[in-house]
Amino acid sequence: MTSFQQARIDLGSQLRQLRETARLSGKELAEQLRWQPSKVSRLENARQTATEDDVVVWAQAVRASPDTTDELIRQAIALLERHDDWKQRHRSGLAALQEDVRDLEARTKLFRVFEPGIVVGLLQTSEYARHVFRKVKRLYSAADQIDAAVRVRMQRQEILYDRTRTFRFVVSEATLRTLLAPPEVMRGQLDRLLAVSTLPNVEFGVIPFDAEFPSNPVNGFWIYNDSMVGVATMTKDLILRDPDDIAFYVRAFDDFAKVAEFEEAGREVIIRVLHDYRQQTAY
Length: 283
Fold this sequence. Notes:
Residues 14-69 form the HTH cro/C1-type domain. GO terms for molecular function: DNA binding. This protein is of the alpha/beta class. The chain has helices at residues 3-21, 26-33, 37-44, 52-61, 66-81, 86-91, 94-106, 126-140, 146-156, 173-177, 183-196, 243-258, 263-282; strands spanning 110-115, 166-172, 202-207, 221-224, 228-232, 237-240. Helix 4 (52-61) packs antiparallel against helix 5 and helix 8 crosses helix 9 (146-156).
């Protein structure tokens, strides 16, 4: 067991003890917090990492003392800032990872995402996602929860239709052409991107091959509001909260967006790639 997982278990045990001391069942607490009952169980049993917001509302519901609340917040922030070990992260299961991401997205009003090589999870079709999860499972020996992970990923996408949120996505043309699934699946995926790009609260940009990149597209990154940046590497998920780091990634996103094609011009790039896939599957 890693130190990260042990710290998550310790925090979950403290949360459970506070709930039991307050004489609340998991279902009663979930109702107070307007959560799914399963979230209470996941947090208490260390299948999901509690966020700062999670522990604040939990502490309020169980009437924890200010000192106890401050300590819970400290532990939650420390967990989120840890560079989670990839072996332990995937051992908890593909579906649990998706639940963690969904809770983070629920607290976000402005999404800015750059991805140079994979279609963003919020925009994936179920079949594309299934092929991605199969590759993740093979590479990381993750718990075999592909069906559940796909289901949660599809549920996550309901947030796209919330008009109170704004989504700005920028991908490279290489993203559209990287065969993470068979050509027929890629065709369905591009059709999905065409549809999503017309949503009023979604901006979807493509950097075409003939555009000069403003900087080296080393990795993808997600900017959540103006408070946090997620950067995924092959073995770590970095959570950056330092204002200087956030400002850097905002500038980087803006630079990529300046050379991307949006709206009809962006859809023309997608349609061109889609035509190429259709030719491949015609033979």
